User: What shape does this take?
Amino acid sequence: MFKTMKELCSKAEKKDPIKIAVSCAHDPDLLDTLVRAIDTKLAFFTILGDGDKIKGYLGKRVDDFKLIHIVDEDEANKKAVDMVYNGEVQGVMNGISLPSKFLKPIEEKKKEKGRARFLSHIGLFEIPGYDRIIFVTDSGINIAPTLSDKVEIVENAIKIANKLGLSLPLVAMITPIEKINYKDMPSTVEAAIIAKMSSNGQIKNAIVDGPLALDNAISERAARIKGIKSPVAGKADILVLHNIETGNILYKILTYFSRAKVAACVAGADFPVILPSRTDSPETRLKSIALAKLLY
Amino acid sequence: MNTVLKNMEELMEQARRSKKKTIGVVAAEDEDVLEAVKTAVSANIARAILIGDEGKIKNLIEKIQLASAEIEIINQPVPQKAALQALDLFHSRKIDLLMKGDITTGTFLRVLLNKENGVRTDKILSHVGVFEVDGVDKLMYLSDAAINIKPDIQEKVDICKNAIYVAHCLGNTEPNLALITPFERVELDSIPSSVDAALIAKMGDCGQIKGAKIEGPISLDLAVSRKAARVKGYSRPIAGEADIFIVNDIDAGNVFYKGLVYFARARMAGVVAGAKAPIILTSRADSEETKLLSIALSIVIREVELICSKL
Assistant: This one.
């Protein structure tokens, strides 16, 4: 498993370029980033969207892309996913479609194939002062996951970590306190149940523990002072947040206040899915493409 | 108070300039709490009356070398009675600030809020965290990360008012208050926090909550980054300019607080607001600096209260 974003990128460089279908790609900033990805041999793109606009934005560079003119948002999203199942591309990326619309054909295709598992968002962060990549989930897709949704969020994240070479990631279920408060704090109850499912072998290829507050999950000093005994305390690789409110706040603190470097992906599909936030920097988008390369 | 305090140095300076305050520590037989008292006494911003088990307190004082002319001990080994005694001392103006020692938070606050001689006001108590983050040229306020688990709308209004009050005490008399949600849209069916936010923001517009410009629902990136707001086409004046961040529940607040401290290396001070005087509650895992800054914060708030009560 890479420990820095630089390592992620150099690993990705060693693989052949990935073919990605980008849906609703008629956005000048996005296209700039895609050109950079082509120039660094990260990926080849099939871009779906308003052909006239795209040609206007790209000028001559349009020749570096395969362009499919589809103006309708839903149609473009569906076509991108079909292209993966037809073997024309290996992954999909969202341009400026609504996230829920972009994900819809992916979910529908999964249902068709009898795998009704669901999708979750994972951010990988390199944070100044931390010696490892920290995974944060779910900051972007599931608003208020139920207990069984959360088990899938955990398993999705474990699968991604395993795939990236972390064979036994340490997963922390993040809550405000370390005690179970079944009356007022559902996050602590769900954390406890999922931790138990891990210790009795129902969740594999990782050690999951909780309820753990954020400080005790990532700071060995804090865990020591509070006397927390847990194999995950102070060393967590994967932070599982209670809901979208908490996930979103942590994602944005890391982005805006910690100056962390980030790559993100959607887990749970049968292929790499990139769902950039509208406010992601070009660097973040490029790192997410590099990550997708390591995941197929 | 006329200047806006912009960072923790200025907060400490303001505490030093204030008239020296006396902290009443309830059940003071707690090493971490006495360490915090020691830092405040050494910084020459406070003296303390330690109420609790005298024998244990004396042993600890010797152990951490707190011996000082600024310390007085009152023997009262029963924590609940110690809290009641602290209230008497507070009402007779012998102490200015109340601090929790080796007593459960629940018991401590229950006694302090008792109807006979407690320090309750018409508002609920809430925790206000004050943060200094590298690259941000002002103090930021966060609530509630520690006391109210799942506040209802009325409690959230009090939480807003308490946070506004703390910002005012630190000189920021026109703070921008952001009600933080995952998105900026009101989602009636799926995101209750966005509905609360809309209602509270409207109460701000109607003048029902005063002393701040209130905006929400708004996501954290829009509240702190003008660039993000531009990209997302969000054009309200608060974009990138929020001073006070109000979160939906303790899950969100706690992650916000600890994310800032552990991932952004923020300097932090905390206080319990909503009573007749600031209440100091430190956590064992707080750094020594946070403990000192939390005491300094309470001193600055109390100074404003005492000056206003004389007007």
Chain B touches chain A at residues 133, 135-136, 149-150, 180-182, 190-191, 193, 219-221, 224-225, 227-228, 231-232, 247-256, 258-266, 284-285 (CB under 8 Å).
